[in-house]
Amino acid sequence: MLYIERWKSTLIAFAVVFGILYAMPNLLDKKTVTWMQENLPSFLPTQTVNLGLDLRGGSHLLLEVEINAVVKEKMQALLDQTRRDFRKGKIGYKGLSLVSGALHFELTDLDKEDAARKILREIDRSLEVESSGKSMMVRMSEKSI
Fold this sequence. Notes:
Layout: H1 6-27, H2 30-39, H3 67-88, E1 93-99, E2 102-107, H4 113-123, E3 127-132, E4 135-140
Antiparallel strand pairs: 1-2, 2-4, 3-4
Helix pairs in contact: 3-4
C-alpha cells in the first residue's frame, strides 16, 4: 500500500483548497464578486480572470489578400524560372524584365519562338503569351489572378 507522509498530504490539501479559493470568483456572478471585493479582507482573491476575445464569445477574423503583391511576387518567380529554363533550353534572349505586371524580353533568334512558348507553357499553362517579331510579352491571365 502507498504511504504518503502527513506533511505531504497536508501540503497537497492546502494547495487544492488554495486553488479552489483562488478560482472561486470566476465561478460566481458579477454581483457576488463585487460584494466580495467590497467586504472580504484584501488577502483573499477577489479578481476574476480576464477572458480573451475568443473565450468571451468568439472572434471574427477578416482576412484580406493584397492581390497586387501576390501577382508581383508570382511574376518575379516567373522571371527567375524563365531565365533558368531558357538557359537550359539554350534559348537566347535579351532585356528580360518585368514592366507593368508583365514579363518582357526579346529573342535573339526568331526560330526559337516555338521552343520559348513551349517552355513558358510548361512553367504555367494559364500564362498569356503575346509576340510581335522578336519581342515577347508574358502575363498572368485574369482567370489565374
